[in-house]
Amino acid sequence: MSQGNLHVRFDSVPYSAARSVFPVESLSPEVWARHDTAAEWLESVPASDILAVAPESMATGYKLAQMPLTVVSLDDLPVESRTSVVEAASGDYSLLVLGRATDQVNHRLREYV
């Protein structure tokens, strides 16, 4: 997966529209995936079927950047969680992606000492 902001590479919805999905861990484990499994899910569908969560402020941008790559299956989400995301989107999507792409390295100061 190439580097870059996910909300720039894919169609996106604002963070507030996807708020019903957070925390992702509260959803059924079959509905979401992280890290390598999430990357596999992304590669299995065309880019036109992927919707990304876009930050609305510095705080939401920071929160999304701190999350590992996470993919949520919109088709398998409970109706109450899916409604706000689908209403904010202007198309038909199967995956919601958030977090940071797995190939982006998180450099720490210790690495340079």
Structure commentary:
- The protein has 113 residues and is an alpha/beta fold.
- The chain contains 4 helices and 5 strands.
- It has helices at residues 6-9, 35-43, 58-66, 79-88; strands at residues 11-14, 32-34, 50-54, 70-73, 95-98.
- It has a 5-stranded mixed sheet with strand order 1-3-5-4-2.
- The mean pLDDT is 85.
User: Which percent band covers the strand fraction?
Assistant: 15-25%
Q: Element order, helices and strands?
A: HEEHEHEHE
Q: Order of strands across the widest beta sheet?
A: 1-3-5-4-2
Distance between the termini: 30 Å
- Overall body shape: globular
Helix tally equals 4
Structural class: alpha/beta
List its traits:
globular; 4 helices; alpha/beta; five-stranded mixed sheet; 28% helix; 113 residues
Please specify the SSE layout and strand pairing:
Elements: H1 6-9, E1 11-14, E2 32-34, H2 35-43, E3 50-54, H3 58-66, E4 70-73, H4 79-88, E5 95-98
Parallel strand pairs: 1-3, 3-5
Antiparallel strand pairs: 2-4, 4-5
Structure described in brief:
The protein has 113 residues and is of the alpha/beta class.
